[in-house]
Amino acid sequence: MHQSTTTTGGHTLSTPGPPTKRRVRGHLVRRLSQLYVGLAVYGASSALLVEAGLGLEPWNVLHQGLAERTGLTIGVVSIIVGAAVLLLWIPLRQLPGLGTVSNVFVVGLAMDGTLALLPEAHTLAVRIPLLLAGIVLNGVATGLYIAARFGPGPRDGLMTGLHRRTGRSIRLMRTAVEAAVVVTGFALGGTVGVGTVLYAVSIGPLAQLFLRLFAVPSASKGSTVVATGQPRGAILRP
Q1: SS3 sequence, the chain?
Q2: What pLDDT, on the 0 to 100 scale, is given for residue 1?
Q3: pTM of the full predicted structure?
Q4: Which pLDDT belongs to residue 216?
């Protein structure tokens, strides 16, 4: 790393110079790795919640309900719904990032791939650990994905877009949209249960914890970018 020197009061101070190409490239590689590992782990964690059968996160309640009615896999439904939601960004004047577009495909593919590998879980002694592991891994995935800073997921971008266009709070927009999603998904046959409630109350603190853990240092400085607000202020799901 290049350094510049400044003489002040007889003392010479060294300050970091501009980042080298190697450092910038390494920074980008780390961010891309976090993005795609995070998305893959998110899909895998969602599959664990599906297999546990004790309640899903809001959007997957809808995905599962649609899958039950259409005969498609839940991963394929997730991809279709994600693409449809992304189209709603157009009137909201939202601009997608690499992470936004990648989210549409990677999460659904990872979910279907994991479900294909998992054995069926019949007893609570197996289903409860699957539920807990799914929630914790979902928090890990959220921290990885958001800390990579490649843009919000399509569903969260919809909520932030509605916030900007309506002037209503993000909390209100998220609550309204996700309540509608859960009710619709439940009516279609999606699973709502104790896992849905446990996910709702734990994902915020978990996401905040892992956001700090996986924060990516700036390419030009030694500082680290972290979410400083309350968990509800972070984008919590892809």
Answers
A1: CCEEEEEECCEEEEEECCCCHHHHHHHHHHHHHHHHHHHHHHHHHHHHHHHHCCCCCHHHHHHHHHHHHHCCCHHHHHHHHHHHHHHCHHHHCCCCCHHHHHHHHHHHHHHHHHHHHCCCCCCHHHHHHHHHHHHHHHHHHHHHHHHCCCCCCHHHHHHHHHHHHHCCCHHHHHHHHHHHHHHHHHHHCCCCCHHHHHHHHHHHHHHHHHHHHCCCECCCCCCECCCCCCHHHCCCCC
A2: 47
A3: 0.81
A4: 76
How far apart CA 52 and CA 47 sit, in angstroms, is 9
In this predicted structure, the answer to whether residue 219 has a pLDDT above a threshold of 90 is: no
Q: Is there a contact between 165 and 92 (Cβ–Cβ < 8 Å)? A: yes
pLDDT tens readout for residues 27-43: 899 999 999 999 999 99
- Angstrom distance (rounded) from CA 55 to CA 202: 14
61 within 8 A of 190, measured Cβ to Cβ: yes
